[in-house]
Amino acid sequence: MADLKVQRAIVFRTLGDTSVLEDVKDWPVPVPGKGQILVAVKAAGVNPVDASIRGGKDFPKAITKLPQVSGCDFAGTVAAIPEGTETDLKVGDRVYGLADGWAPWASDGSFAQYTVVTAANAARIPEKVSYTDAAGIPIAGLTAWQALDVAGLEAGSGKRVFISSGAGGVGTFAVQFAKLRGLHVTTSASPANADFLKELGADEVYDYHKKNLVELYKDNPFDAVIDSRGGKDLWEARKVLKHNGALASVESNGYVRDYGWGGRAVHANSFLRQKLTAIARLGPSFHPIFGRASGKDLTDIVGLVAEGKVKVIIDRTLPLGQAAAAHEYVGKGHTKGKVVLTVDEE
């Protein structure tokens, strides 16, 4: 490892469609600093946010650092621990998490042979869990897990929750986590995914193609809504909440999707209105949510996977060299669970 200077990585030097992604064979290996570890990546999860950052439509271009290695989710082995990093991890340990350098303003994502992560934000992978399954967890699993927490959906409360887009990455985790907490779960999906979601634990599956959400549930509102789409869907979700309910939403990207660049203003206005409404106790509480790096949460989640209580739903796996195809597929927003890239050193 000491002599390794370059690696294979999926890089974009400008913003645009999937054609800007390059399969680079001599990209510098990132150097971990104090508090970080270097991970040899075995698999990397692909998320809508990866396509959003690359596309330049959902994040201000001024804050997007270029060139950049794509990707945030990883699973692999600890390759190096620099002096000064306090951790009980050892070289060779199987770990997973969110790469430190995945954000728009960073540069070292997970679609590479090596990535760096803050040691406290990584979690060990139990032997029963594959690298592929582990790589499918981080952003989606953390977002679902933390959304239930901020919405006040405690275990044993028996509350009713509506989860949008149940067959997606966040949705498949949220449905399972909610059922483990003893909640009554209603989710939205196409008819083709209805039986699949009931197998995961959904009590009711709402067909968004044929039925109006508000008409169905306005007289029997939910205690909480977990919204993974945002945009126009966000306001529909508010209409089926109890007055003292809670709305947890991954909402900012949805406004750009539905309203174009003008969605920035719509998003700002919506955010302010919803926060003021909640503060004044004139309506449901509002909680913007996005998966926050947490070694503890990742340990709890992967433990449930190892015990067989939660399934990681993998839509498909592709080799690292097909990262552009993975971006294209995930960007369409119709995945059933997660897409994962396998990373093999060449």
UniProtKB/TrEMBL annotation:
<feature type="domain" description="Enoyl reductase (ER)">
    <location>
        <begin position="16"/>
        <end position="341"/>
    </location>
</feature>
<dbReference type="InterPro" id="IPR013154">
    <property type="entry name" value="ADH-like_N"/>
</dbReference>
<dbReference type="Pfam" id="PF13602">
    <property type="entry name" value="ADH_zinc_N_2"/>
</dbReference>
<dbReference type="GO" id="GO:0016491">
    <property type="term" value="F:oxidoreductase activity"/>
</dbReference>
<dbReference type="InterPro" id="IPR011032">
    <property type="entry name" value="GroES-like_sf"/>
</dbReference>
<protein>
    <recommendedName>
        <fullName>Enoyl reductase (ER) domain-containing protein</fullName>
    </recommendedName>
</protein>
<dbReference type="InterPro" id="IPR052733">
    <property type="entry name" value="Chloroplast_QOR"/>
</dbReference>
<dbReference type="InterPro" id="IPR020843">
    <property type="entry name" value="ER"/>
</dbReference>
<dbReference type="Pfam" id="PF08240">
    <property type="entry name" value="ADH_N"/>
</dbReference>
<dbReference type="InterPro" id="IPR036291">
    <property type="entry name" value="NAD(P)-bd_dom_sf"/>
</dbReference>
